[in-house]
């Protein structure tokens, strides 16, 4: 009975597109699915410093999850977020540097794609879904 319920749930998730193929492999085989590698660069143009980290994200997972994992794994990386009820979490500080309304500074999310193009993300760290091997920049800048 429990196996039938689980299988029904998996089929519903597959039909609705909520479940990735790798998670299905995990459910069927009991083995952990691979994580997708990404690069994360913290760029502070005011101090002319950049620090790049190699990390990974669950397939179909959001950037915030990869950042939380990186924060656990590497003590040189830390960040804080604040929850906005309409737009979800947004970055407040990265590596001890916080944006301030008074001086118009904030953390911008920019993505360099594997094909060489680049764009400023139109969503925050709680909604952005990185693709394998993307290079993501957290830019401390002004608006």
Automatic annotation (TrEMBL):
Signal peptide: 1-20
Presence of keyword Signal: yes
GO molecular function, one term: cobalamin binding
GO cellular component terms given for this protein: extracellular space
A Gene Ontology BP annotation from the UniProt entry: cobalamin transport
Pfam families hit by this protein: DUF4430
Domain Transcobalamin-like C-terminal: 62-141
Keywords recorded for this protein, A-Z: Signal
Protein name (Swiss-Prot/TrEMBL): Transcobalamin-like C-terminal domain-containing protein
Originating organism: Conger conger
The organism's taxonomic lineage, starting at the top: Eukaryota, Metazoa, Chordata, Craniata, Vertebrata
């Amino acid at each position: 009975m429990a196996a039938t319920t689980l299988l029904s749930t998996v089929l519903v998730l597959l039909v609705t597109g909520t479940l990735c193929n790798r998670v299905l492999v995990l459910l069927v085989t009991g083995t952990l699915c691979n994580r997708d590698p990404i690069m994360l660069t913290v760029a502070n143009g005011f101090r002319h410093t950049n620090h790049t980290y190699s990390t990974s994200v669950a397939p179909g997972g959001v950037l915030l999850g990869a950042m939380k994992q990186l924060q656990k794994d590497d003590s040189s990386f830390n960040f804080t977020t604040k929850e906005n009820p309409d737009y979800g979490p947004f970055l407040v500080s990265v590596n001890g540097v916080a944006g301030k309304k008074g001086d118009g500074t904030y953390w911008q999310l920019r993505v360099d794609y594997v094909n060489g193009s680049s764009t400023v993300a139109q969503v925050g760290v709680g909604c952005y879904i990185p693709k394998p091997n993307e290079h993501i920049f957290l830019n401390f800048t002004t608006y």
